[in-house]
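Thread: "does anyone have the structure for this chain?"

Original post by V.I.:
We have the sequence but no experimental structure in hand. Need at least a predicted one for the grant figures.
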Amino acid sequence: MSQMLIKYLYITSLLAFIIFLIAGCGRGGPPNEVHSPGDVEGRAIGALSGSPSAQLAGELGTAVTFFDIEDMLNHLRVGNVDCVIMERLVAEEVIPNASGVRMLADPLLEYDLRFAVAKENNQLLDAINYAIEELTLDGVLGGIRDRYFAGRNYRYSPPNVPARPGYLSLAVSPDSAPFSYIDENGDFAGFDVDIAIAVSDFLGVELRIISRDVPDLISSVWEGRNDLALGFLPDDVGDYVNVSESYANSAHVVVVRR
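Reply from O.Q.:
Generated one for you, tokens below.
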């Protein structure tokens, strides 16, 4: 065999090996073994710290919590966690633009988002349900959702209704973006916050927003420290408080490596 042929074979073999290494690195981690929600149990599961997804992750397997979504997805890519559990509304916004990961088609758990109201305050519950119905028909609630989760430039205009005396006290978490968070001006913002503002505007009352930790949202209404709470409210909280009609549907979904 000539030296030129030997050199050619060596170079092509070296190039093939380099391509193999690059391809292996491009996968970003071990092969995905979670192909359906039924495969989640017993796994190392990533979730955002303090979220209901983190609680669910701990019930199903070993919860590994993160404060940042991109950091969490990076740990998923390299195999430090087997999968991630997220709110569907958040995943639908984030995952289409994220490389190396995908959302499973079937949800892990579906539920409706609702207002929580004290059990003895039926009048307020009826008023909120009426506001949700009318704001849904007017396209306001859909517009707010599209602004946060579909990238549409929806502009909310408060209705021209007479102001009523008093105010409503709303409990929300400051660390549950994009549902509720503190913006660059130090004000509360987010999907849930804008829904609550629209409902209070429709009712003609002032809305005062109080910062609460996620585990304290329901108890603050149950104990009378706040009139309302929003966000991450599955139907089973009705044992402690009344819940309104749904203002949005969400789910816990599973995100895995591609």
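V.I.: this helps a lot. The mean pLDDT is 88.
O.Q.: and The first strand starts at residue 44 and ends at 48.
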